[in-house]
Amino acid sequence: MSKVSADTLKSLASTQDLTIGTTGQTVTLPGNELRVNTFKDKGGNTLWTSDGAGNLSNVHSGLKGNLVLLNTTTASGAANVTFGSSLITSTYDLYIVKWINVNPATDNTQLWFNGSTDGGSTYNITKTTTAWQAYYNESGGATYGLQYLAGSDLADTDAGTTYQKVSGDIGGDADESTSGEMHLYSPSSTTFTKHFYVRASEIGSGNQAGDWYIGGMFTNTAAINAIQFKMVTGNLDGIFKLYGLS
Q1: How would you classify residue 82: left for phi > 0, otherwise alpha for psi between -120 and 50, otherwise beta?
Q2: Which among 177, 184, 2 has a CA at the least distance from the CA of 96?
């Protein structure tokens, strides 16, 4: 077998393709590695660019998938976490918020949320919701199977404009927190009510593992263009991520 050794191998002209092998052949690379920082197809379209350390940019939309990370907010002693009108738009049919290890400054408090139709000037949209919970104490003591939480649901005929709880009574110790996610459907629709649901877990102030299920809808037909999360009392630490799904 013949070998060609060279530091640089290039075509005769910059506009001419360099062909290695022919159709049907297998081109073998030493160590099965092809090292490039910018990868383009034959049409010159960039598929991705690397900085040489594994961090990618200019990733082609065809490779990203349908779930797109829009924002990450790391809160530290924050009064609230808000995703405003620049993020909640008509671009996506479904928005997903994930919160990770959200710890309250105040013991025995809850995380809650609301929406806005005026870009965040007010958070007072009417809503009708339903709430369920199960929990079990660390000591093996107090146990509740799945139960309806009449005090945590809302009806738009009474207190429906208030914030909706999305957790139970979270403990304020350094190792206590809540994690969960909310799905908000078609917030920009001006025809339908806006459905959402929440699935969350928390370590409660009584050292119990709580499991929360919230479902409901914003009952108005105006477009929702901002959402906000905060504690019933006190500030919060934790990570919030907003995703869009086409």
Answers
A1: beta
A2: 184
CA torsion 241-102-226-217 (nearest 10°) is 100
Q: Which domains does the chain have, with CATH numbers?
A: 67-245 (2.60.120)
- Predicted TM-score (pTM) of the model is 0.77
Q: How many residues does the chain have?
A: 246
Distance, CA of 228 to CA of 190 (rounded, Å): 20
For tokens 């409901």, the residue is 216
At 67-86, the pLDDT tens digits run 899 999 999 999 999 999 99
Query: How far apart, in whole angstroms, are the C-alpha atoms of residue 119 and residue 158?
Result: 24
Q: With CA atoms as reference, report the closest residue to 191 among 223, 239, 152.
A: 223
CA–CA distance, 19 with 14 (Å, rounded to integer): 13
Q: Are 189 and 90 in contact (CB under 8 A)?
A: no
Over range 101-126, report the average pLDDT. 95
Q: Is 238:103 a contact under the CB 8 Å cutoff?
A: yes
127 and 163 Cβ atoms separated by less than 8 Å: no
Cα-only R_g, the chain: 26
